[in-house]
Amino acid sequence: MEVMSPLDSIDSLLFSASRALCTPFAVFVQIQGYVICLLLAAGWAGAAYVRNREIRQMKKCMKDGNDFAFLSHNLHDLEHSKQIQLPGVTVVMPLKGFGEHNLHNWRTQLTSLYGGPLEFLFVVDSTEDPAYHAVSRLLLDFKDDVDARIIIAGPSTTCSQKIHNQLVGVEKMHKGSKYVLFLDDDVRLHPGSIGALTAEMEKRPEIFIQTGYPLDLPSGSLGSYCIYEYHMPCSMGFATGGRTFFLWGGCMMMHADDFRTDKHGVVSQLSDGGYSDDMTLAAIASAHKRLITSPPVAVFPHPLASDLTFSRYWNYLRKQTFVLESYTTYINWIMNRALFSVHCYLSWGFVAPYVMAFFHVMAALRFYMKEKVAEESALNPKGLILVGCLVTCTAIELLSMWNLTRIEVRLCNMLSPEAPPLSLSAYNWCLVFVAMVVDNFLYPISAIRSHFSQSINWSGIRYHLRNGKIHKIERTMEKGKKFSDLAAKRLYARKGAQSKISILGSLSRGLAHWRQPKKYDV
After folding, report:
1. Is 492 exposed, middle or buried (0-12, 13-18, 19+ CB in 10 A)?
2. Pfam families from the entry (predicted)?
């Protein structure tokens, strides 16, 4: 009796697995993965069409003599008589920590070319936050040019710290402000962003919330590409050029009176155990059939931390999946459970064909390397056909993702002509492919863990949920939790930090920057 070598045993296992993966059910799973790839490609193609339409419109305006098309398609809207009639806007920025890109991001917000009354409120929980010292130095540069101040909100007790900071900012906003714009500190605005959002709100008063979405600029690490890949499928929901059912908490413009009057319970629902600002407000909009829109120009460059490690990506993914555990109503809970189930199913449905393709390819390689193959180890040619289909669908998907990224990079460059141009050459598309598989594999694991843990660490604060709402807040800094996940922000002040910020402030004051008066003439 001939004894099989270990390698022969492995070969036999590979051949058996390859044949098993050619059964009708296995073929269905693989075809399902191809369909998911093609649906993503189609969605990105649609998003690219919307963004590219805006580019064509801007180019047409510039060809017609409007060199300020990045501010407004209609040059007459920039006349002084129109600018002085613009409504007041309060920009509320909840801050936590200070990172490598924050200073630049804050400058883009403060130097907005909006002609109406504009107020900036930087909200921190305490003066011990490193962001407090950084913003204080920055505002010294702009003290005569913009209406900006820092507000100390204190620690939250009934909701997340971000929501608490936002609500305190709303309480302190100017009484004459018609709109309030919530911005995350990692949002890099274009000069005309606030004006574009305000113009749309004025044109369509029925809008409840206007939002936008970031264009991630990966730093080169696998973790940064995983975050880019995580955001890309979501981006198609924001590239509608109008109505959307999605909401991003990094950029939300709303009617100020909705907060003053607690319309639809926006204040009470956020403050009563609210964990996620965008999920809570999206649930309110859905319950009351209110309109959420995302204009085509609302895409913002989002540079990721240069040292963004894979563990920080995992922490970020945990926070993203954890929001599905928070809810305000029973209907909201059902919607979150449905989103949880569908996303997990599609994620692993996307990954499964690649796992199966691995067995097909390895079996084929061993088959052609062996000199003699037993009849029972014959290779099913259908396996390589399935692999070929997967390669084709993956190529189409990556091409569509590349095209959307290319168009959004071009749009961002046109919307910020004064900024250093973004480049598509910085993207590593091999890492993008790896990130697609890794991120979709890890998403269900993160979502399941979030479901059973019911607690999360967010910027050094641990929140515990009960019945979809925060019921316990722990502020004991966890071991090693000194930096945030995306921007390498230092979350806690350390000895000597203020003096270092002073040096940074001195350097920043020495740089030439674009100063913007509160009101200007065109």
Report:
1. middle
2. Glyco_transf_21 (PF13506)
Token couple for 392: 């084709």
Count CA atoms closer than 13 A to 295's CA, side-chain side: 25
For residue 189, give the 3-state DSSP assignment: coil
Mean pLDDT to the nearest integer, 487-507: 43
Lowest mean pLDDT among 7-11, 28-32, 42-46, 49-53: 7-11
**Which residue from 222, 180, 128 is spatially nearest to 431, judged by alpha carbons?**
222
For residue 150, the SS3 value is strand
Q: What is the pTM of this model?
A: 0.86
Task: Name the residue among 58, 42, 43 with its Cα closest to residue 410.
Answer: 58
CA–CA separation, 395 vs 83, rounded Å? 48
Q: Which residues touch 374 (CB under 8 Å, ≥6 apart)? A: none
Contacts 24+ apart (CB under 8 A), 124-127: 124/95, 124/96, 124/150, 124/151, 124/152, 124/153, 124/165, 125/96, 125/152, 125/153, 125/154, 125/155, 125/156, 125/161, 125/164, 125/165, 126/152, 126/154, 126/155, 127/152
DSSP secondary structure string for all residues of 243-297: B-S---TTEEEEEHHHHHTTGGGHHHHHHTT---HHHHHHHHHHHTT-EEE--TT
d(CA 425, CA 447): 33
Q: Mind listing the pLDDT tens digit for each residue in 423-456?
A: 998 899 999 999 999 999 999 999 999 999 999 9
In angstroms, the first-to-last Cα distance of the chain is 94
The single-letter code of the amino acid at 477 is M
Cα gap 493→485, rounded to integer Å:
17
Q: Tell me: the pLDDT tens digits for 336-354? A: 999 999 999 999 999 999 9
The DSSP letter of residue 79 is S
Closest CA relative to residue 237, chosen from 284, 293, 288: 293
